[in-house]
Each structure stands twice: as C-alpha cells, then as structure tokens.
Amino acid sequence: MGAYMYNGSAAKCQLVFQDLKQEATCTPTIVTYNILISVFGRLMLVDHMEETLREIKEMNLSPNLSTYNNLIAGYITAWMWDNMEKTYMIMKADAVKPDLITHLLMLRGYAHSGKLAKMEQIYELVKDHVNNKEMSSIRAMICAYCRSSVSNRIEKIEELLLLIPENEYRPWLNVLLICLYANEDLLEQMESLISEAFKHNTSVRTTKIMGCIVSSYFRNDAVDKLANFVKQAESAGWKLCRSLYHSKMVMYSSQRRLAEMEMVLDEMNQVNFYFSKKTFWLLYNAYSQWGQKSKLEQVLGMMCKHGYAIPSNACSS
C-alpha cells in the first residue's frame, strides 16, 4: 500500500486494502488508514479522504498524529483552508500534540491562504528550523507578503530574502519580486533583480509583467533607464510590447528630446511593430506641443493615408 501511495496509484492501493480486510488473520490498523488518507489527499480526492476518516471512527480507532498531518496536507493540496484550520483545531482538542511536520504544513497553508498573522505565529514556533532548512517555506512566506497590502511588507520580505542562499535562485520568485518593486516604484531594487534575471537567463514572456516594469519607469520619468532596459530585453528575448516603445516616445517628448523620440520609430520597425493609431497620436501631440508645424503636417498626412481620424483641433494647429 505504501509503494502504491508514493506512486499515486490510488486504485491499486485501495485494492490491496480490500484484500487486507478480507484476510482472517489480520485487520487494518490506524497505520493502514493513514496510508489511504495520504494517497487520497495527494490526489485531492477529498471525499474519499473524509470517508476514510469516518470509517476510522466506525472501527473505534483513534486518529493519531500521522492521521491529522495527512488530513491537513490533503486540505492544503486542495486549497481548502477552512477545513485545514478546522482539522488543526480538532487535533489539538483531541490532545494530539502537533509536531514539526504539522507546524510546517500550517505555515505553508496560512502563507498560501494569506492569513499573515497566523502564519507569523506558526513561524515563531519553528523559526530556527525554517531559517536553516526550509527554503520552500521561506519562499511561500515571501509570496504571502507580496500578495498582501501590509505597510511593512518590503521590510519583512527583505529580511526573509537574506536567508535564501544564492544557489537557491528561483526564476518565478525573481520575477514576482521585480513586479513588487516596480509597483512600489523602488527602481534601484527592481533593476537589481532585472540584472539578476538577465544573468540567470530568466525569460519573461508575459505582457502584464513587462507593462508593470514600464509603468514604474514611466511614473519615475526615467526614460534613459527605460531605454537601457528595452535594449537588454530585446537581446534577452523577453516579451516585447508596443507600450515599451510608446512610453519612450511620451517620455522623450515631455523632455523635448524629439530626435530621440523619432529614433524610437526605427526601433519599432526593427522589431516588426507597425505604427498604430496611438503611435500617430503620440507623434501628433509631441509636434503640436513643441510647435513643429512641418512635421505635424507630415503626421496628419500619414494618419489620413492609414485611414485614422484627424484630431478635431488639427486645423487650428
């Protein structure tokens, strides 16, 4: 049964269990039922897991530490946070003392469910062990803080990051932290993590993450930093999006760096981004703002050629 459990073969595990029940010389014990609970929990067969628990009670067997740990693990796998916590409370009420495994499970469960106060309480119970041996738990806690809105989440995250060795680099965590720092407009930290991502050949392939990075540069009016990032992203094969180039155009325009703004058009051609209606509107606004009448007329002609609406104030311009 144990071999089938570790290989996820629930059906075969159950068949062996049925054979065991038919034996005249031996009967299932709590250990046997614990194996069933574990295999059902791993496969998120919660109904089967709970039915096995009912059978334990019908057999007048007492759930032990392994029973509760397997139940808690099953509920965590199924993301059933209320059932997880309820089982933990029943366990303590039944005078079954939680062990390290229990606390590590609850730490992970509270982290995934975003219950930070309870997560921190459990963390204090197993802090020494977690800090030295449970990097997966540390990462789960970092993710929990990233998803939260607590005022001191940056400080808490950075304290936890110090515990993770360099050889424990995880691309997904790196990208998550890039977005965190981008949303907080902490450019120095964001760029440090971006450099780390390039160093480890981490590839970002989603427009949402790229938009998050660009928005941070835009809010900080850091066009030169954005331009450098775009070059690196192009070389590293990151997901390119038109907003990268449009943001550069707007920022160059705001600083009256029109020649550099026009060079962005060449960059867009090189990466096969056609000029959209918004591209022409950005050019129109830039030339209109800085009184570039001849270039303004050229843009209006191009807009007309592509069938885009002419701005209502074009005549007065």
Automatic annotation (TrEMBL):
Which keywords, in A-to-Z order, does the entry hold?
A: Repeat
Renumbered ranges of PPR repeats: 29-63, 64-98
Q: Does the keyword Magnesium apply?
A: no
Q: Which Pfam families match?
A: PPR_2, PPR_3
Could you confirm whether the keyword Aminoacyl-tRNA synthetase appears in this record?
Answer: no
- What family does the database annotate? Belongs to the PPR family. P subfamily.
Question: Know the name of this protein?
Answer: Pentatricopeptide repeat-containing protein
Q: What is the originating organism of this protein?
A: Cinchona calisaya
